[in-house]
Amino acid sequence: MNFAERFGDLFERGEREQARELAKAVLRNEPVNSVEVTDTAVHVETPSFHGTHQVTTTNGGAAEIQRQGTYRYKSEAIDLSFTTKTMTDEAYEQASARLAEQGTHESNTIE
Known about the structure:
Blueprint: H1 3-12, H2 16-29, E1 34-37, E2 41-45, E3 49-57, E4 63-73, E5 81-84, H3 89-101
Antiparallel strand pairs: 1-2, 2-3, 3-4, 4-5
Helix pairs in contact: 1-2
C-alpha cells in the first residue's frame, strides 16, 4: 500500500493522529519541489504537502525562520493540516539563501 492509500485509509477510519504521524514521516523524506520566501513567511511545496513557516524580524532587523510550520495535505478529498517542527534541510537552506540575498537573514532559527 503506498502512502496516499495508507493515509486515506487511516483518515477514513478516523485515525487522524496516526494519519498525522504518517504524514510527518513522509514529509521528512519527500523532495522539495519549491520554496517561496516573502517578508513574513517561507512557503514549502513537496509532492504531497504545502507548508508555511513564519519569518520573524529581530530588533536588529535580521530575519529568523521558525522551524515549526503548518502543513496541509494537497488532496482535496482529505482535509488534514498539522503543525510540525519538520522543515527539511533542503527547504531551510533554500530559504536561508534567499533571505541572505536580501541581506536580512541570521544563521540562527527559532525552534
